[in-house]
Design a protein that fits this description.
- The strands form 3 sheets. An 8-stranded mixed β-sheet has the order 6-3-2-1-7-10-11-12.
- It contains 5 helices and 12 strands.
- With about 200 residues, the chain is an alpha/beta fold.
């Protein structure tokens, strides 16, 4: 008998394996130039330009980097926040990164670099959220790494705060395997195009 849940898990696993292979084939120079192009597209989004406070993320080595966009937003007077998972929690809290100083970042409970100190913002204070993912599709479906941290964050965002998927164009797939509870992003920005979904 077919187990739909098991099929979905296996389908997601297959996409993760395929995308990670694509990302491993990119050189550091390719990642840097693609990140720069992606950041230009990110900054051109009306939702980003109108925001007062934006949640960004710090990339892993193979992820597209939104840092240049975050620095531009900081220079324009916006509040820049980063995700942080506190000890004993499985939910992201949103922490202001006021200084932009990399020296004040330490690994959080999930192993991600996050501000050691900083004001914790309420979810309602965020006007836009730049969200990483392993894969996205043109309907706004998102596949994360499997920990569910961003899934639990997306459901808490206010309706006026669009989640913006940020990825290399190599991370776009025809269709991301989706469970009924999976939430979609409002736009997907890559180094090659901007896909506004809602």
């Amino acid at each position: 008998m077919v187990d739909p849940e098991r099929e979905l898990i296996e389908a997601k696993k297959a996409v993760r394996v395929a995308i990670r292979e694509r990302l491993r084939e990119m050189s550091d120079a390719d990642r840097q130039s693609a990140s720069a192009r992606g950041c230009e597209r990110l900054l051109a989004l009306p939702a980003v330009g109108a925001a007062r406070a934006i949640l960004f993320y710090l990339p892993t080595r193979t992820e597209i980097s939104p840092i240049a966009a975050a620095e531009t937003c900081r220079e324009e007077g916006m509040t820049i926040a980063l995700p942080r998972v506190p000890p004993g929690s499985n939910e992201i809290e949103i922490v202001e990164w006021a200084s932009g100083d990399w020296a004040e970042l330490v690994p959080d409970a999930a192993g991600m670099l996050a501000p050691a100190v900083g004001r914790v913002l309420r979810v309602g204070e965020i006007d836009a959220a730049v969200v990483p993912g392993v894969a996205f599709d043109r309907e706004g479906r998102r596949l994360g790494r499997g920990g569910g941290f961003y899934d639990r964050l997306l459901v808490r965002l206010s309706e006026r705060c669009p989640p913006i998927g940020f990825a290399f164009v190599a991370q776009l797939v025809d269709r991301v395997p989706e469970a009924a509870h999976d939430l979609r992003v409002a736009a997907v920005v890559t180094d090659a195009e901007t896909i506004e979904i809602r």
